[in-house]
Write the structure tokens for this entry.
Amino acid sequence: MAKIAVLGAGIMATALTFPAADNGNVINLIGTHLDDEIIDSIKADGTHPVLGLKVPETVKAFYFTEAAEAVKDADIIMSGVNSFGVEWAGEQLAKLARPGQIILSITKGMRADEDGTLHILPDVLKAKMGPLADQVDWAAIVGPSIAGELAVHHLTCVTFCAEKQEIAEKLAALYRTDYYHVWTSTDFIGNEVGSCMKNIFAFGGGFAPGMLKKMGKENDKYVMYNYAAALFGEGARELKQMVVLMGGDPLVTENLGGVGDMFVTTMGGRNVRAGTYVGEGVPFSEIRNVKMKGVTLEGVAAIGVVGEAVEKLTDRGVISADDFPLVRALYRIVAHDAPLDLPWSTFFGGER
Amino acid sequence: MAKIAVLGAGIMATALTFPAADNGNVINLIGTHLDDEIIDSIKADGTHPVLGLKVPETVKAFYFTEAAEAVKDADIIMSGVNSFGVEWAGEQLAKLARPGQIILSITKGMRADEDGTLHILPDVLKAKMGPLADQVDWAAIVGPSIAGELAVHHLTCVTFCAEKQEIAEKLAALYRTDYYHVWTSTDFIGNEVGSCMKNIFAFGGGFAPGMLKKMGKENDKYVMYNYAAALFGEGARELKQMVVLMGGDPLVTENLGGVGDMFVTTMGGRNVRAGTYVGEGVPFSEIRNVKMKGVTLEGVAAIGVVGEAVEKLTDRGVISADDFPLVRALYRIVAHDAPLDLPWSTFFGGER
């Protein structure tokens, strides 16, 4: 049993309170300044309005103004904000955290320096925490996990990674249930990079359905799974390439943190929906500014970060111009309104 | 331009005549003794009755009794029978083929000796051909390819593998079109093993939908993609493990011949349908004998072959009892009517 403070009351952070609460942990769920309506609702009748479910009875909700109180005795602070709020979360943790606590990150993405050097998000959190960064333990959760499915106790398998194996195992024991299976890993980089890259490639999961819709063939006997599967294969290849480039263990890519996670993310969600518009022929600027105005698109944001970094790393000679052809193509679509015309012959090392 | 004789008029063999015909190759499509109705239909008005499409005008259909005439001038003989007919096909090729011809196999599966030693299907064909086996060239097509999608010219990416690189390239050039992208490989074993294993794991793609149906939750807001993704991940892991065990290149597993192919096969088809019944709780013997009586289930057949071999290889100490936990679980379901109760904690090297 542990005391867990959760910073951010989004659907994934909240869903993770279900197995944690089932195991008797004490959980304080803290909304950010953007989550006041969610906290209002949970305080009123226990319902998370986006998840559409009542949170476990033992979970206590806090407004952000109450964060200090909610965090002070915690053994674990989960950083549950989305990828747009990581720097902000790091600044808050710098003020709220204490030496000896475990910081458990669930946010997926990467950040890049001006020269294209990429960083996993736990490192972005760390950079905001100054000397405290070395006085806490670092861990993260990755793997195929749709929040609502976990919350309704549908079977879910994930990896808890940490810099120290004993920290990963300690956390795993706190969260593991008969519906939530947890493996552990010290391959922080491989798992984090995989989780970012799968969001990038899931965007392409919408292309084939969109193209079929445009052609009026969405209900035809033969649809376009061959297309989707080829994209999935090239995505798996480039995911691994990035894991290796960043210094992670390539083995991660074929398990939960790689193709498993990419599989679930390709099945649906906001990024796939945005990709469907691309398949229909809508320029990405129109998707961003009109069709899906105001909708958070973490996968698209990751394409922006990684796509730009890939170009800079190419200029610097760190990678070859032939590397990451799918990332580059997706980047042209989201950053330059390029039409959907994938360079198939450049995939899988070049058609030959 | 080449002369291609196709032995077997099933949907995949027939679909492959579309890109080949578009490139001006001369194609003789030969039905087996089980394909007379298909050949009747094509001879009458060009329609393949199962595919539901007219075959290319230049494709000439032959009854099996006309096989000798159809094959004699061919540069290439495609062996297009399903996995149940491979030995039969080998016997026919032994009589029909001539030195210098290329045998192009599209059948997926494996065979096992009494002691559990597994063999790829081209080797099964070879074994039936005697000395002629060394006087022809061997090649195969693998990768995510739903027949009907290819036939209607939806984008498809595949790998042509051959024992000799120049043979793979020669064939690729004959089939490559703007909708049919072809890569080449000399990793015959890795590609063939991957293609067999993906059929095995695709069976599991039906489990989650079946379980939801049984619970009356198939139209719920939250379904079971986490479950399907975890299965996909473990499938990818065991697919690679088998490729390595058989001596193939593990790199194949993350590309078209591995996860790409597994993705498309998981999206639907007869094996997934059979898996759905398993998810609903139907004993497999009832699926085989009642629910899907007479339906060809190649993936299930592969589970039988590989599952039994895995047990024998374990007895002989070739592999560990901890290896291939998903293959073993699927085998218990199809061979011993075991209920669907997957040993999740044994997956991914063991939950820890």
Notes: Chain A has a mean pLDDT of 96. The longest strand of chain A covers residues 156-162.
